[in-house]
Structures are given as structure tokens and as C-alpha cells.
Amino acid sequence: MRIVGFVAFLVVAAFLLVVPAAMRPFGEPRLWEMDRYFLDHAQEELAANNVCTAIVFDYRGYDTLGEATVLFTAVVAVAAVLRKLKEGEA
Amino acid sequence: MPEKEGMSLIVKEVARLIAPPIFIFGLYLTLTGHLTPGGGFPGGVVFACGFILVVLAYGGKRAFRRLPPEGASKYDSGGALLFLVIGLIGSLVGGHFLYNFIQAALPGTVFHLLSAGTMPLINIAIGMKVAACLFMVVMALTLFRLAGEKGGES
Hints:
The complex is a heterodimer. Chain A is mainly alpha-helical. Chain A has helices at 2-22, 33-46, 51-59, 61-81, 83-89. Chain A has a domain at 31-90. Chain A is flat and about 60 Å long. Chain B has one domain. In chain B, α1 packs antiparallel against α2, α2 (40-58) packs across α3 (60-66) and α2 packs parallel to α6 (119-153). Chains A and B meet through α2, α3, α4 and α5 of A and α4 and α6 of B.
């Protein structure tokens, strides 16, 4: 069992050492066409100064809807778990 | 009869001084999300933190008289519905979900508060939703603690 743990440690350590060395330098992404499109066109297409908000709320608004649904589900889960105690208290 | 609830007088006074700027800052982050760093998510979190500060300082019962948890539930569902309605209007008008129909009809000017079409509206919806969500989560955990204490006593 200890050997398995040691091997797993070695594999994870090698992964963590090799991957940062093989990464591309900062500021030179491999796929940059979409980034460049957002930066160039967000102001003229959407009249939005904040490109982050333009991406989050317009270009990828569907994704944001999913995030909001996750939040809603979390609240529903909390309310469902604590429901009996709230009723007993009220 | 003096209120025994909440924290000491110093905490109450400081919370009364600090809570309005926190609410205004949350509103500012939400409303100018398309111009400056910010947006619905951080604005809603700041707003919810203001509520939580008031509840912590003044105690649950007195704060719940002003902001009942049922209202938070309505704001939560209302924010989600507003987001969905805006997206569905976009799909009816422009052909795909969340189409920016206001920007297509009335193109705004960059750096103006009323610009970017539907994005400020979606920011407001998300801000309402996030604020109500976080407030409800913290309040549910607080009520859980109170109920547990009462159950221990009886």
C-alpha cells in the first residue's frame, strides 16, 4: 500500500514539474483568434466598455444562465436540507 | 425595554454608519457593470454582505421585520425570471437566445450609462438573484443554529 502511495506521489510530482515547463509563455496563447475578436469588436458591436461583461453577459450569456441556475439549485438544496428546522422554529 | 438582541452598541452604531455605503457600492457595481470592473455577481455579493452585516449587528428578529426571508425568495425567483424573459424576448425578436435586441434597435454609445443594450438589465437581474441567494443561504444557516439551540433547551 505504501508503494502504491509512493508511486502515485512520484507520478503527480512529475506531472506538476513537467507540465509548467512545457507550457507556452505567458501572453502567447495557442488559440488567439477568438480573444482578438472579442477585444476588437466588443465596443463597436455591443457599445460595452467592459469586455469581460460583454463576454459573460452577451457572447456567453447562456453560460451565465447556467451559473445562475447552479446558484439557484444550491439555495434550493440548502432550503430543502434545513426546511424542517425552520418550520419547527417558526 | 432595551433590546438584548444583536451585538454591543459600538457594533450597532458602526454598522449603521457603514451599511448604507456598502449598499450604494453594491448598487454601483451592479449598475455600471458594462462600463467599469464589476457586474451583477460581485455587486450582488456586496449587497448581500451589507444585509448580513445588518443582521449580524442587530440580531435576527429585528432585521427580519424589515427584510423577511420570503421577500428574498421572491427577489431570487424574480431575478431568474427576468433573465429568462430577456433571453426569450431575444429569441423571439432576433432568432437566437439572449439576442441583444435593445442594442440592435437603439445602438448605444460607448462609455454611456445607458448603453450595451440588454446587458445592464441582465446585470440587474443577476445582482438581484445573487444578493437574494447569498442572503437566503446565510439566513438558513443562522436559523438552523437558532433552532438547534432551542431544541437543546427544551
